[in-house]
Amino acid sequence: MKPIWIVDDDQSIRFVLEKALAREELAVRSFTNSRDVLKALDDGDEPQVLVSDIRMPGGSGLELLGKVRERLVGLPVIIMTAYSDLDSAVSAFQGGAFEYLPKPFDVPKAVELIRRAVDESLREEVGDEKGAQLPEILGQAPAMQDVFRAIGRLSQSIVTVLITGESGSGKELVANALHKHSPRARGPFVAINTAAIPKDLLESELFGHERGAFTGAQTTRRGRFEQADGGTLFLDEIGDMPFDLQTRLLRVLSDGQFYRVGGHNPMKSNVRVIAATHQNLEERVRQGSFREDLFHRLNVIRLRLPALRERSEDVPSLTRFFLQKSAKELGVEAKRISDSALALLMRFDFPGNVRQLENICHWLTVMAPAQMIEPKDLPPELGPAESAPSAPEPRPATALAPALPTPVAAEAVAAAAPAVVSAPAAGVASPASGSWLVGLEGDARRLLLAGEPDVWDALTRQFEGQLIRTALEITRGRRIEAAQKLGIGRNTITRKIQELGLDD
Q1: pLDDT above 70 (res 28)
Q2: Positive or negative CA dihedral for 167, 168, 171, 172?
Q3: Taking the model in full, what pTM does it have?
Q4: What CATH topology corresponds to 4-130?
Q5: 276, 374, 377, 449: which is deepest, by most CB within 10 A?
Q6: Helices (H), 228-367
Q7: What's the fold here for domain 311-383?
Q8: Per-residue DSSP letters for 147-158?
Q9: CATH architecture label of 155-305
Q10: What is the pLDDT of residues 375-402, one digit of tens each?
Q11: Nearest alpha carbon to residue 305 among 89, 149, 143
Q12: CA 248 → CA 91, 251, 268, 504, distances in Å?
């Protein structure tokens, strides 16, 4: 991990922060003015986090903030300011500061703030590596991985596909991906929502019309089938298509021929059809409102998209993606979101699915007052923020070596001295049997009674090694994904693998 840079002309401030961060095993580099910081950046050095005073000779912290942000867009910058400079804190946030630290400050709180900035920086590094080129669809949940595999298998096919899923779950994105990765990728992708167009106009929209075919038809118009010739036609909400038009659609799918409204000459169009619906088409067929032969014609390959509530583990990555997207669209600095706010989002059912989450992120980009989104900033439809359990801020493993991660360390202490601590640490789910704790207690007692040296280090290495091996097995050796699942940084997992000899 790169060092924390402290910039302040006050030697006592530098000394206090250097000592406090050194105790946490965080590397520190100090500067007395902004000129030396810019020179270090010119020399190719980079910090993990920059902590700068706002008033210094030779250039203010706000000026330094602006220059640093031009070079390192994702770098968290903390501005230190006296209480009388709180107006400047507004300018700091507008300039993209991660947070401000009012003087005089409480040292433990300052360290906690710097830790949060380090966590954010490490998450950004993992995100940059995984998403340098963001895919058209995001999802790590098993159900979404099944969808990705299906898209891959269909990449060389032009077979008809039926996509099912709730409204807002991303059916058009999947249809677009099927087109983009198919032999027809060079052709057009044309989409039409059959439920959004009045019945009287839908036939003309699909098949086109001749001049004079009806009142207002001043010119001949090509329909969507002609527009999609050589490419893909996406028929969204096909379950709501009027019954008489279903007959015409079936004929087109059968022989590729159709007539424009008011036309007498048959038209041909070479089109791959992808349909989507939130309806239960089998039930619609039983009710007589959807043609059974059309259903079988469309239902060659079926892809089911899971609702967002079925893949809540994807909410954090989707949220960060949509915050970045909204910021780019609005031309503003992208906001960050705290772990406690993410925890609240992950508990929400999202009846509007991914589309609703995207709208919430757009709302937050406009309405959240600070760069860091907290639970109190979330919109009212998510429920009262007070009811959400606040998630503990993650602590990077580099700052805790050689200790265990905090919640697990508490469990280990409980196992070693059950008479003193009888309950597991809050927020840690114990296995029903507690067998691993019994085993840990047995090993701890045996080693301690035998007078073995470095019992803590020995058991910690075993614990960390097993965690990392399991994560790498689950992710098939992908270290960045394993680091994300464990809640640690990419640099941390690489260092631990080397320290524990897991590369062997």
Answers
A1: yes
A2: positive
A3: 0.51
A4: Rossmann fold (3.40.50)
A5: 276
A6: 243-255, 281-287, 292-298, 315-330, 339-347, 353-367
A7: Helicase, Ruva Protein; domain 3 (1.10.8)
A8: HHHHHHHTTT--
A9: 3-Layer(aba) Sandwich (3.40)
A10: 999 988 786 544 344 444 443 333 323 3
A11: 143
A12: 62, 5, 14, 65
